[in-house]
Structure formats: C-alpha cells, structure tokens
Specification:
Blueprint (H helix, E strand, L loop, with lengths): L16 E2 L9 H6 L4 E2 L8 E4 L3 E5 L8 H7 L5 E3 L3 E2 L14 E4 L5 E4 L6 H8 L2 E2 L4 E6 L15 E8 L4 E8 L2 E9 L5 E7 L1 H4 L3 E6 L3 E2 L9 E2 L7 E4 L5 E6 L2 E6 L3 E5 L5 E6 L5 E8 L10 H17 L3 E3 L8 H18 L20 E2 L3 H10 L3 H13 L1 H10 L10 E2 L19 H16 L1 H24 L1 E4 L8 E4 L19 H20 L6 H9 L5 E2 L2 E2 L36 H14 L10 H11 L3 H8 L16 E2 L15 E3 L3 H16 L20 E3 L1 E2 L3
Antiparallel strand pairs: 1-34, 2-11, 3-4, 4-5, 6-9, 7-8, 10-15, 11-12, 12-13, 13-14, 14-23, 15-22, 16-17, 18-19, 19-20, 20-23, 21-22, 24-33, 25-26, 27-28, 29-30, 31-32
Length: 733
C-alpha cells in the first residue's frame, strides 16, 4: 500500500505552474511520512482524525473516543461530525429575520432594515438554528478482571504509541491494558461516512474489551464555541434498534439519521442511548459503523475494504497534487514549515470539502453552532486550487451554485441586483442575526475562486477552460452585478466629478468599528476594484460585451484611504495610527496587497510604510487571528521582503501556535479570572482551519510566485540556507 513511486504528478510545467527545472523528482512518500504524527502520552492537545471532507472521526490515544470528555475539557475535542446532519429546535413563535432587524441609513438617505439584533429572543433562536449535530461517540469499554465495568481512565493506559500514517490515512494505536498489549487501527472510507476499527488483543477476543457507542442529545447550547456534548434530557430524543444487526434509527425533533454495521449486534446498556457491540466470529475485533441520512441500500463495507480504500485514496492524494520539499535547507525554520504544510494539507482535505461548506473548526468540533462563515471560504478553499486539488474547491462551490436562488432573493430584498451572499449560514443560505449581514468582503470571493479554477483549466487546454466558464458564469457575473449595485455614486466627491463609495452600513474585515457609520474600507475597496475587473474579463471570455456600469465604477471608485503616507482601515475612521484601540483584530489595510494582487489602486511605497507600521505598532497580543500571520506574510512577499515574509509566517503569537498534530487553536477574547478553576478553558476555539488554509495559500505564493514574476521562491530569502524543490504549484494571481 505504501508505494514509493517517484512519479511527478500530471502537473508539469505550463501556464501558471511552478516546477523547478533541473531538480530530481520529489520522493513523495518520504516527504509525507517523515511528518507522520506520533503520540506517546495521553496528550489532550494531540488527537488524531480520519475523514473524507464530508465526515470525520476524531480519536484519542486509544484510537477511539474513550476519553472524549477529558479531551474536550482540557484540549482538542474528539467527535464524530458530518456536514449533512443538522438539527433545529421547534420555532413555536415563528421567528423570522424581521423580528431581529434594526434600521440603518444608507448613503443617499434610504433606510433599510438589517437583522443585527442577535441578543433578542428571535436573534438568539435564528443564530442557534439550525446547528450541526454530533453523530455519536464510539469508545472502548472494559470489563476488569474482577468483573466490574468501571470506565477506563488515562491511568489504565500504559506504554502508548500512536501513529497516523499520512500516506494511508490509518491511525494505529498501541498500548498496554492490565499487562496485555492492545492494538487499535482506525480509518475512514473515502466515499462513504464510515469509520472502520480493528482491535487486536486477547482482551478483545475474550470479550472483556469491547466497543461502546453512545448518542448525545447534541451540543451544549450555552457555549458558542467548542461546546461539550449534551448528555442531559435523554427523553427528548430516541435511539431505536431495528433488526438483529446494528441498525439504530436516531430521531431528534425533525432530524432523522441511521447508524448501521454489517457484522455487529447491538446490546442496550443500562444508560439511555448507549449500546455495546459484540462480534459473532472470533479473531481480531473488526467493525465498521456507517452514519447516513437514510437507511443505506447495502450493508456497510467490511473493515478490510475501508482500510484498503483509505490507503489507495491518500496515496493518490499525495501523488496527484503539488509538493514542496525543504529537505536540503539548513535554516532551522525549514523543517517546521514543511511539517506544517504536510499536516495542514491532510487536515484540510479531511475537514473542508463537504455537502455544505465548512465551519471554521471543520469537522473536529462545533463553532458558531456549526454555521459556515462565507467570508472565510477563501481561506478554507483557495489553497486547494493552488496545490492541485481543483475538485475539492469545486465541491465547495457546488453549494454556492445550489444557493444562487436564495442569494438572488436576498439581493432583491435589499434593493440590490444579482446575487448577495449571506455571511453566517447553515445548510441553506439564510442569514444569522448579528453584525453578520453588514459584512461585505464575502461578496467577491466567488469571483476569485472561480478565477482560480479557470486559470488551472486554461493551463491544460481550451476545452476545460470553456467548461469552467460555462459552469461558473452565474456565480461570477451575478456576484459582480451585486457588488456594483452595493456602491453609491456620490456626485459631490472628487472635486465634483463624483466617486463611488462603499457603505455605510458596514462591518469591515477589521470587526471593531461602528457599523452604522463605516465607509470606504481600504481592503474592501481594493477587492471591489480587482473583482469587477476580473468579472469584466469573464464577460469578454464568454463573448459578451463589457458591462458599462462596471467600467464606470472602475474609473470612479474611491481611492484607498490613507493618512500621513500610510493606509488606514477606513476613510470614515482614519485613526488607525493615532489610536491603539484601532490597532487590533485584522490589519485589513495589508489585505489590499496580500492574496489580492497588485493593481493600480495600490501604491507600493505607501504599502511598504503601512507594513512597517503594522510590524512596529500593531497590538499583536489583544487579538490577531491565525490567518492574519500568513496574510501579512503574503504582503511582505509581494513587496519583495522575503525575510519579513518568513519571520511573520512563523512568528510566535497567541493564535499562531500549532499543536503537534497540526491544529491551530485560537485564544478567547474573554480574560480568565484571577484564580481560574481547574480545567478552565484558555482557548475559545480548539481548532481553527482558516489558519491552516491561509498558511497553505501563503506558502504557495511564497514558493510558486505570482503572475508577472519570474523568480523562484520569491517569498524566501536567498541567503543560502533555503534549498526548496517544488512540483505542481500554481502561480497565484
């Protein structure tokens, strides 16, 4: 299963593709497996996870979820989650967005309601419903030598060695229990929501070591981010076995799903919603458990098939994509960057391409009730195209295509043209109350992401490019149409020549400013300019004439706001460099030249001074998010400052500390009390995948370069300490 074929993938040199000539092919197997995570203690910060993009299973040191409560309380949770299972509480009051709305005044005097009142009963219900539902907890259960059945504790596990083989996607957990060796292997089926487990031990053969599956009510709804499972109120949901084999029908309010296995008989435990699984034949305890929205037409795959399919899937994943090898480098950061690349690529493939776009904590745990934040889709998915996984980006975009009718209705309700994308949504595109409806930088993402797919297809041939244009024309053109209609032409600006302004109301990317008065944020203006220009190119590629209004916008859009030779966050609040309170959260001024390419609206000298000011004066401790570090690194790289790019990318900070298995937790905004109780959470978000995705996008840009550049690895210093080989990276715009 562990092929060592040294075949570069079909990503040879071509338009927009970074392949460094004159170098030996990268040994993909060696590159990947030298970063296999190995865990040797009961480390709550180092759970491992298997999954297929739509479904994932997190496991503790036992290979299952035996110590799930401990991991959740003190580290990173281990859960079973999908992007298809959602639950809603009853809505007896028939709350609608209108019940959570507040009036805002727009430029020109028009007044429009936006659902921003999150703390009202209606706002609270609409934010929490629907929400992502945990599917079940699968754990080891142990009958001790004296016949007692007390729960296992970490102290029972001795000599643990747990490894995730990234080349096969299989977790192997070895430990000793009461003097007997135990081996647990865990994998996920690539094409179905099935977890496979194989347990080899005399304890399993004798029946003393078995598997327990339990079904919670859901998550604790009093906790917004990283909530614990809710085991209360067992009478409010049902877990009903059907037939002799393991078929459990789960019903929670209006939500229904089934749990099946081909080889096991469930035996109810004394605890509600809990079952023990017994195997009818002797030998290693081998099982699969499948979760699905409806009863499958065929039995779950045997475990051996799942392990085989997992190995084939992950070998193909690593071979048929880009790769970057730092093994010849002497810089001490090189191996850390390479490890972070490999672990991030695995985690993002496991977690970030499902039936509904991902939440920021992926399929590890819930954040914001499982909702998808559409302004994060770039950080979640753009890297897929840059690293040669167009299909995973397309899977994310398929949901947006399906939600175009809802986006058109939202635009229409606000007097806008085209399609307006809601910010915080569940499986269908409905707003969630709060500042969310006033965020606009989600709007151009569809143009950018579709453009990445077009560029990759164009590199391979005209037929593929034409198909991309046909598939995504509505996403691009209707998103752009809405962008243009969101602007207001103020005839008195620009010495009477008039300019287009953006906002108010606005909640800009730096989410700290007054929403009712915010106007002309620097990053959003730059994104509007680039996005509309690319949308015009799409019209021309489609054989259409240029849109006259878009050209008028491009010629008359307000300039990026600046003060004393540096860009500021907002024209309406130009105190970025005068007020320390305006220098935390995202330094959005830099985003105008980061993942966004250089355009005529950005002055390099001004941006250089702005970067200097951010490095020297920004409040890096209060709250700067995990994706900010890679974003700033991209700015430094585009400005020809590779030393700064690497330094910022790997800078130590509260939200840029990666755990041994690749997760990047985010610290809470709320300060802990002076004497916090034992187990008090110092993190609000246990896993934050926009950080991993941004990191991958930054490395792609720093290594593969961007349009118009001819230098290899432009984001890394040419000081002799970096030896980098790359295959298949696509150039960034």
């Amino acid at each position: 299963m562990k092929s060592r074929l040294l075949i570069p993938p079909v990503l040879a040199a071509g338009l927009g593709c970074a392949v460094f000539a004159g170098t030996a092919p990268i040994d993909r197997h060696a590159l990947v497996t030298r970063h296999n995570p190995v865990v040797r203690t009961v480390d709550v910060d180092s759970p491992l996870i298997v999954g297929n993009g739509n479904f994932a299973f997190g496991c503790d040191i036992t290979g299952l979820q035996t110590f799930a409560a401990l991991y959740q309380q003190q580290g990173v949770p281990v859960e079973t989650l999908s992007r298809w299972c959602w639950v809603s509480d009853p809505n007896p009051n028939n709350y609608t967005l209108a019940d959570a709305s507040k009036d805002f005044k727009l430029p020109g005097g028009r007044v429009l309601p936006f659902p921003t009142r999150a703390s009202t009963p209606a706002g609270d219900w609409l934010r929490k419903n629907p929400r992502c539902q945990p599917l079940g907890e699968i754990a080891l259960d142990y009958v001790r030598a004296d016949g007692s059945n007390t729960r296992l504790t970490p102290a029972d596990i001795t000599d643990p060695v747990q490894t995730l083989d990234l080349w096969s996607g299989i977790v192997t957990s070895r430990f000793t229990l009461d003097g007997e060796p135990v081996c647990v292997e865990t994998a996920c089926a690539p094409g179905a929501d099935i977890v496979a487990v194989r347990i080899t031990s005399k304890l399993a053969k004798s029946g003393r070591l078995r598997v327990r599956i339990a079904f919670p009510r859901g998550h604790n709804m009093r906790v917004k981010n990283t909530p614990n499972l809710d085991w209360t109120r067992p009478e409010t949901h049902t877990s009903q076995p059907l037939g002799a084999k393991l078929i459990v029908r789960r019903v929670l309010d209006a939500t229904y799903y089934v749990v099946t296995s081909a080889t096991f008989t469930p035996t109810p435990a004394d605890v509600p919603h809990t079952y023990f699984l017994f195997q009818e034949q002797s030998g290693p305890l081998s099982l699969t458990i499948q979760f699905s929205a409806a009863k499958p037409s065929a039995p779950a795959l045997p475990a051996d098939d799942v392990f085989r399919d997992s190995a084939g899937h992950w070998e193909k994943f690593w071979l048929e994509s880009a790769a970057v090898d730092f093994s010849g480098s002497t810089n001490p950061l090189a191996s850390k960057i390479e490890e972070r690349i490999i672990l991030s690529r695995y985690l993002m493939a496991v977690q970030m391409a499902g039936d509904a776009p991902p939440q920021e904590s992926g399929l590890t745990c819930n954040t914001w009730y499982g909702k998808h934040h559409t302004e994060m889709i770039w950080w979640h998915a753009a890297h897929f195209a840059l690293w040669g996984h167009d299909g995973l980006l397309a899977r994310n975009l398929a949901w947006y295509q399906s939600q175009l009718p809802a986006a058109r209705e939202l635009a229409k309700s606000r007097g806008l043209a085209g399609a307006r994308w809601a910010k915080m949504t569940g499986p269908v595109m409905r707003e969630s109350p709060g500042g969310n409806p006033l965020i606009v930088w989600n709007q151009p993402h569809m143009i950018y992401l579709c453009e990445l797919l077009y560029r990759n297809a164009a590199a391979k041939g005209n037929a593929g490019a034409a198909q991309v244009l046909a598939n995504y024309r509505d996403l691009v053109l209707e998103s752009a149409e809405c962008m243009a209609s969101m602007l207001y032409f103020c005839k008195t600006r620009a010495e009477g020549k008039g300019e287009y302004v953006l906002g108010p109301p606005l909640w800009i990317a730096q989410e700290i400013h007054d929403q009712a008065t915010s106007q002309n944020p620097s990053y959003e203006l730059a994104y509007w300019h680039w996005g509309l220009a690319v949308a015009q190119q799409w019209r021309e590629r489609l054989g259409m004439s240029r849109e006259e209004k878009w050209d008028h916008v491009l010629a008359h859009l307000s300039p990026l706001p600046e003060k004393e030779g540096k860009y500021v966050a907002l024209e309406s609040h130009p105190d970025t460099w005068d007020n320390i309170k305006s220098r935390h959260d995202h330094p959005e001024m830099l985003m105008s030249l980061a993942f966004l390419p250089e355009t005529r609206v950005v002055d390099r000298a001004v941006m250089n001074r702005t970067l200097d000011a951010v490095l020297a004066q920004w409040d890096w401790e209060t709250k700067i998010w995990g994706w900010d570090y890679p974003m700033i690194a991209m700015t430094a790289a585009r400005l020809g400052r590779p030393d700064d790019a690497v330094s910022i990318l790997m800078r130590d900070g509260p939200n840029n500390r990666y755990l041994p298995t690749g997760h990047c937790p985010q610290r809470s905004d709320e300060a802990l009390p002076a004497n916090p109780p034992p187990g008090a959470r110092k993190r609000e978000i246990a896993t934050y995948y926009p950080a991993n995705g941004a990191f991958l996008a930054a490395v792609a840009l720093m290594t593969g370069g961007w349009d118009g550049g001819s230098e290899n690895t432009p984001g890394f210093p040419k000081d002799g300490t970096w030896q980098i080989r790359a295959e298949g990276l696509r150039r960034s715009p």
